[in-house]
Amino acid sequence: MEPIIAITMGDGAGVGPEIILKTFNDDRSRSKNLFVIGDLSVLEEVKKLLGYSQFELNGIGKMEQAIWKPGTLNVWDMQLLKPGDFQPGVISQLSGDASFKYVIESIRMANEGKIAAVVTGPICKEAIQSAGHKYAGHTEIFAAYTNTSNYAMLLYDEKLSVIHVSTHIPMADAISTLNQGRIERVIQLAEDSMKKILSRSPKIAVAGINPHAGENGLFGKQEIEIIKPAVENMKKRGIDVSGPYAPDTVFLRTLQGHFDIVVAMYHDQGHIPMKLLSFDTGVNISVGLPVIRTSVDHGTAFDIAWKGIARNDSLLKAIYLAERLSQ
């Protein structure tokens, strides 16, 4: 039997339910062992909206009730939401709370060995925080509930891949807390993760944090005092890593094939080129966790939620990578 992959439904008011059903209905979806952690009634409503009749949703409360056959999508029915409880496309405390609980349930199942990997649907940070869950995003939730301190966010696409030294913190903090140890840990995570994905050791480029990577100290000394020593130290450990490179050119060079992945110093440095090039196809991977977790690299898209026009390309790739990593 193939590894069992759980997909969390994400925020019910967003595009999560739609892209999940589109993926199960998609001829490109090869996995037969997918199941959704969410709410059956919400998925049934979106299934009607999409006009799908070629498969059935099977609500379950224990794994023994699952039906693993073509034409059936198993739903671990949390019974937290009903379609009338929220308005599609509108931030809701109730849907935010439910989306958080889907994630926690997926972590529990992974920790207990019931599933091989988790693919997360998009959540709304404002909605989950309004429900009292003070986390910046999925990565931080998984880290907290698996007691993990050494982790990072990796955005993957065949065209460009990026891993981040810092993510959901203020820009001033990203600069003031920059340190050699963290950069070295992220370089190691890039090596370990991309080796699994590519089946070979990657070529890793490290971006500077200042314009022109500091221009030999003219525009800042972080490159000289912090980043370069980290790169040199990891080279000594046998990792194919180089830099720091000017942030305004390193992503282009990676796109041209000179490198396999860029170590970005902060959130937007890595996210802007990824969103520009791979908005519909990029995959978010939380690396360093004891749980395999991939995700779509886009948000809840409330502006197009429940309109039948959301694309599921990123979810398809997230499932493929989850399967690959779980093997």
Measured distance between first and last alpha carbons: 12 Å
Major β-sheet annotation: 12 strands, mixed
Spatially, the strands of the biggest sheet line up as: 3-4-2-1-5-12-11-6-7-10-8-9
Number of extended strands: 12
Percent strand equals 15-25%
Radius of gyration: 20 Å
What is the assigned CATH homologous superfamily of the largest domain?
A: Isopropylmalate Dehydrogenase
Instruction: Kindly provide the name of the CATH class of the largest domain.
Output: Alpha Beta
User: In the CATH scheme, what's the topology name of the largest domain?
Assistant: Isopropylmalate Dehydrogenase
The average pLDDT is: 94
For the record, the CATH architecture of the largest domain stands as 3-Layer(aba) Sandwich
Can you characterise this structure?
The chain has helices at 16-24, 40-50, 93-111, 125-130, 138-145, 171-176, 180-198, 222-236, 247-255, 267-278, 313-326; strands at 5-8, 34-38, 56-60, 72-77, 117-120, 152-156, 162-164, 204-207, 241-245, 261-264, 283-287, 293-296. It has two domains: 1-148 and 289-327, Isopropylmalate Dehydrogenase (3-Layer(aba) Sandwich); 151-285, Isopropylmalate Dehydrogenase (3-Layer(aba) Sandwich), CATH 3.40.718.10. It is an alpha/beta fold and 327 residues long. It is built from eleven helices and twelve strands. The model has no long low-confidence stretch (mean pLDDT 94). The protein is elongated, with a radius of gyration of 20 Å. The N and C termini lie close together (12 Å). It has a twelve-stranded mixed sheet, sandwiched between helices.
